[in-house]
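Q: What structure does this chain adopt?
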Amino acid sequence: MPLRLTVMQASLGAACLALVALGSFPAEATLDTLAGSWSGMGSMRPKDGPNEKVRCKVAYNVTKPGRSLTLDLRCASEAYKMVLSANIEQNGTDFSGNWFESEYRQGGKIYGTSAEEGLIEARIEGNTVAALVTIRTRGNHQSFVMDAPGAWVSQVAIELNKDSK
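A:
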């Protein structure tokens, strides 16, 4: 039987997956290196259920060289899909931005820091969302882990690879 998500449940998953797109820029590097497409798969663990497989594609577009980008994220599983966009600004090792998921019409803020090259630690927030995220990028590979104890989606883990041109 397919899993059906409420707006609150979907917004947590959408916000967490939005952060996948942030994980590629190292400290003090420009965002220009993110330009292009990434894809991969992973799993989401509902609080009271088994893991569910998810596939994702992310497209990065540099809007201000060295300072900001937009992203478009599409993810799907057997039970749902999400279409998310975000605007991200970087200032030194800090970043912030806004996200919006169009299938469930939810949005919020992203805050974080890139304390060392290839490592992102962030917090995502929305009306129904709060989670901590760790993202590590090495070359053309990115791993993403989100923990939201007590939330409907308690954990998300995704592995992405940069698509060849």
